[in-house]
Each structure stands twice: as C-alpha cells, then as structure tokens.
What we know:
By secondary structure, the chain is an alpha+beta fold. It is built from three helices and five strands. It has helices at residues 2-7, 25-31, 51-56; strands at residues 61-64, 69-72, 77-79, 91-96, 101-106. A three-stranded antiparallel beta sheet has the order 1-2-3, with no helix packed on it. A two-stranded antiparallel ribbon has the order 4-5. Strand 1 (61-64) and strand 2 (69-72) form a beta hairpin. It is elongated.
Amino acid sequence: AECLEMLTSRKIGAGETVGRKTGSLAWRLARGELGGKTEPKSSEFKFQPTEADIEVGVFSVEYYMVDDIYKFSNGESISGWSNGAHNVENIDKKIEPDHNQVYLARRK
C-alpha cells in the first residue's frame, strides 16, 4: 500500500505550504523551513565552451554542492547552483548542518 501511495500524485493541502512553525527563526531559516516560495528563474543558462576549449577538445563542468560553485576546465567558475541551471522551478537547495548534508530537493 505504501509503494502505491508513492507512485500516485497527491494534492497538497493549504496547511502543507506554510512551513515549520516551531523552532527559532534562525534555525528554521538555516534549514530552509520557512515555507516561502521563490519565483522560477526567468533567464535560462547554457554552458558553452570557449574557443580554447574547442581547440583542446575538452570542456568540463563540475558542480561542488558544499561550496555552491561550478568550476570549468578553463579555470573559470560561477557561484550559485541556480545560476548554472537551464531552468529552475520548484527546486530548493537544502542545507542540514546538523546532519552534515547539502542537497537539492523539490518543493512540496
């Protein structure tokens, strides 16, 4: 029964969009549990190799979740996970310092 519940979509009730109400403001803010929704990113980003990358025949992009930075093979970098995303909608970066975890997750 639980497996079937996970496979079917469900409607989110009004009470589920407000976020956590217990705990200090600083703690809830650090965990991203205030319930506020941000607008989808309006501009779309595309990774494009430079002329030097094309000449060498190598173009790599690595994302470092903890530092929240993209690093390119040519030594350049951009900061912020959403700045390197083609399109951002309904995604938040979650930081859980008490569990030593950082991850991207869908908003509920």
